[in-house]
Amino acid sequence: MKRGQVLKTLALSAPLALVAGFAANAGGYNAPVVEPVVAPVIEVAPVVGDWQGAYAGVTLGYAFQGKDRVGLNEDGPGGMRDLGELKLKGVNGGVRGGYRWQNGNWVFGPEVSFEGGNIKNDLATDDGYSASSKIKNVFALRAKVGYAVQPDLLIYGSAGAARAKVDYTVDTPTTTMDTSFNRSGYVVGLGVEKKLTERMSLTGEYEYANFGKETLDTGAGITKATPKYNNVRVGLNFQF
């Protein structure tokens, strides 16, 4: 075959081959299959505040609705005399320190405190009797258990033993008793603590204190001191 005929044959066959290729694929195009990408599941651990460690703080409180019923069992014909009720109240302040352990959201540990102030009251009768009581100071050892409802917010309860120094006076028409005594009792309370910074926090507390009965001889008869009161306080804690 001559060279001119070969070129002519190639020129005619190329378009036919192209058309045949398109025809073979017409209506049968398949898009490539892309597998979906599954994002990994990341579990986020809950954020828990750091409450563990030693701390120290200061408090300022106000005692109210204190009760100390004064009854005098007089020697002689007077017999039992009810002088009335001392309603203890007043401002108090103190210092405290403790250590806390933490397990998840639970926080617990001991606390020791010392408070002094002006928790007192007095009374007088029309027939010449009078009495007064003053809580000079209170030393307490508590166990505290709390739950961190938020990383920076702790709600807790407390219970413990306390020892108070009390000034007590009873005056009768014939004698005067002016004495001090120490009396052990118990304290129970509830509180909330809010972190202001990583190391400093603000507290608000309610506590009930009860110191039982102390029998006292006035010289004219026997009386029983029964100091107890409610106390609300605010404070600042500093964690080490």
UniProtKB/TrEMBL annotation:
<keyword id="KW-0472">Membrane</keyword>
<dbReference type="GO" id="GO:0019867">
    <property type="term" value="C:outer membrane"/>
</dbReference>
<dbReference type="Pfam" id="PF13505">
    <property type="entry name" value="OMP_b-brl"/>
</dbReference>
<keyword id="KW-0732">Signal</keyword>
<comment type="similarity">
    <text>Belongs to the Omp25/RopB family.</text>
</comment>
<dbReference type="InterPro" id="IPR006315">
    <property type="entry name" value="OM_autotransptr_brl_dom"/>
</dbReference>
<dbReference type="InterPro" id="IPR011250">
    <property type="entry name" value="OMP/PagP_B-barrel"/>
</dbReference>
<dbReference type="InterPro" id="IPR051692">
    <property type="entry name" value="OMP-like"/>
</dbReference>
<protein>
    <submittedName>
        <fullName>Outer membrane protein</fullName>
    </submittedName>
</protein>
<feature type="domain" description="Outer membrane protein beta-barrel">
    <location>
        <begin position="49"/>
        <end position="240"/>
    </location>
</feature>
<feature type="signal peptide">
    <location>
        <begin position="1"/>
        <end position="26"/>
    </location>
</feature>
<dbReference type="InterPro" id="IPR027385">
    <property type="entry name" value="Beta-barrel_OMP"/>
</dbReference>
